[in-house]
Amino acid sequence: MTIARGDARCHTTPPLIPTKVRAALGRIMSSYPMNPSLPMDPAHPMDHIDPANPATETAAVRTSAVARAEATIQAENVCRDYRLGQAVVRAVVGITLAIPTGEFLALLGSSGSGKSTLLSMLAGLDRPTSGSIRVGDKNLAELSAENLARYRRETVGMVFQSFNLLPRMTLEENVELPLRLSEIDRRERSSRVREALDRVGLGPRSKHRPSELSGGEQQRGALARALVNRPAILFADEPTGNLDSVNGEQILLLLREFQTTLGMTIVMVTHERPLAERFAGRIVMLHDGKLVSDVATAHTTNIGAREFHSPEAHS
Hints:
By secondary structure, the chain is an alpha/beta fold. The longest helix has 18 residues. A 6-stranded mixed beta sheet has the order 8-9-10-5-11-12, with helices on both faces. Strands 4-3-6-7 form a 4-stranded antiparallel beta sheet. Strands 1-2 form a two-stranded antiparallel ribbon. The chain is globular. The chain is 33% helix and 24% strand.
C-alpha cells in the first residue's frame, strides 16, 4: 500500500532489515521510542506556503539555495513510516534538506515532531521508507548492513541524551572502546584517547568510573568517545536534556568549538530554542513530521573569548 503525496510517493511498507542487524539496532535505538500519537497527515511540507507566514517561504527558498552548495548530507524527499497494527504512523513526511560541510545545524520541534527519527536516519541508525540520504557519494538508503555499519564507525560520532557509558569500565576504557572495535593499534589508541579526553577537559579524570563522575562530566566523556574516531559528522540527540543549565551550556560550547576548530559538521536535536539560537548556525523546525521552517541564526556567543571550566560542582 502506498499513499500518494503530490508527485512523490511515500511507501508504507517498512524496509527489511536482517534479524541480527535489527537486534543490534534495537539496542542502540532504545533512545528512539516510537510515539503512537504521531499524526497521519500525509501533506507535503512545501505544498502550502502561507504569504502571512514568512517562515514557510524561508523553508522553501533556503532549501533550494542550500541544495546548490556542496553538501555533506543531502536528504531528498525522505519518508519514514511505522506500522502499529492496521495503522500507519507517518513519523517523517517528504523532507528535503541539505547540510553543507562544517555547518552546525539544530533540529527543533515538539515531542513527536519527527526530529529524532530524522536524526537516526541521517546517522545511519535507521533507513528511510522512501527517498534518499546521500553523504558524499553514498546513498545510505541503498547501503548494505555491513557498509552502513562502516559509515557509522568511520564517518559519524553519536551523542545521546543518556550518557551510555559502561559502568564497569573507567572513563578511559569507555572512550577507547570505539577504537578497539575499529581494530586501531594499541599505541595509537592510547594517544587518541588522551587527546579526546584533554579536548573535553577530562584528562585528570580518565581513571574514574562513570559513577564517580558528575552528570556534566559523563556527558563530556560521551563527547570524547564520539570524537575519538575523528568523525567528519557529529550527531547529538538532546545532549543537554539530562543536564542543568550550566553543564548544558558547557556541552554546547564544546560542540561549537568542535565545529570551529575541527571543521566538523554537527547536527543536533533539541527542544531548547534559546540555546539553539546562541550556538547553532542554522535552525530547522519540524512539525508533524514535516519541515516547516529553515533559518540562519545570528551568533551572540564569542567562543574564542570564553574559557572552558570544568563544572564539577554541578550534577
